[in-house]
Amino acid sequence: MKDPFGLSDRRILVTGGTRGIGRAISLRLAAAGASVIANYAKNDVAAEALVAEADARELDLRICRADLTTRKGLDAVHEQANVSDRKTLGMVHCAATGIHRPFEELTTRHYEWTFSLNLRAFAEVVKLLLPGMVAGSPILAVSSEGAVRAVPNYSFVGASKAALEALARHLASELAPRGIRVNVLSPGTVLTEAWDAFPDKDRRLDEARSRTPLGRLVTAEEVAHTAQFLCSGAASGIVGQTVVIDGGARIVQ
Predict the structure, then answer these.
(1) Class of the CATH-defined domain 10-244
(2) Phi, psi (degrees; rounded to nearest 5) at 41
(3) 161 is catalytic
């Protein structure tokens, strides 16, 4: 009997797939049998470390350096993903950026940079890959708590994530009749290097732990397992949903 959680019949592009949560997702999908293309923009050291780990584990994973805010980068990703190997094409959008400052210190340039990667790149990559997608193709957008709650120094990032979730719901409605499932994965606080951008990192992490019923932060690996489920046939009935994995933090005040 075919494993409903297996991904051996899938080829999945993971944007922002070489660091943090994206890295964990890339490895988990590959471990579940998927052919993974892990996209990244700049950090060659992190990308090469991911490839080394994947090779050591004999996983089908390759990397693609491409800035998704540019036409050249989008074309490079499209070329890498558009392979005729009879596998079902899917994507996970982990790529994200943002400036963590009070609103009055943010500029139009900050706004355009944040939305260009967090939202516009998602839309552009979906458009490029859609012709190669078939019934069963999964599309997963990675959001954050800031999409639904006010987080200090997070206004443009939170707004971009809220827009990402809204776009994913509209796409889910349009694409579901074709068997293409679009969903959102919203992790809680996960300790990754992205937290180094916050000046009050330690205080926020301590607060997150204290208000989480689970009593600890969720891990990148736990988020990755949920991503595997949402990309698999086991989640065939889940369409247009935002799946929260935060140890219960959002159910309490």
Answers:
(1) alpha beta
(2) -105, -45
(3) yes
pLDDT tens column, 145-184: 999 999 888 999 999 999 999 999 999 999 999 999 999 9
Residue 81 near residue 132, CB atoms below 8 Å:
yes
Measure the CA–CA gap between 171 and 65, rounded to whole angstroms. Answer: 26
User: Which candidate in 40, 72, 154, 201 is catalytic?
Assistant: 154
- Whether 201 sits among the annotated catalytic residues: the reply is no
Closest CA to 229 of 142, 146, 138: 138
The DSSP-derived string for 115-164 is HIIIIIHHHHHHHHHGGG--TT-EEEEE--GGGTS--TT-HHHHHHHHHH
What is the distance, to the nearest Å, from the Cα of residue 187 to the centroid of all Cα atoms in its chain?
A: 10
34: left (phi over 0), alpha (psi -120 to 50) or beta: beta
Q: What are the residue ranges spanned by the domains of the chain?
A: 10-244
Catalytic residue among 2, 111, 161, 201: 161
Token readout for 253 is: 């005040």
**Residue 83: pLDDT band by 50, 70, 90 thresholds?**
confident
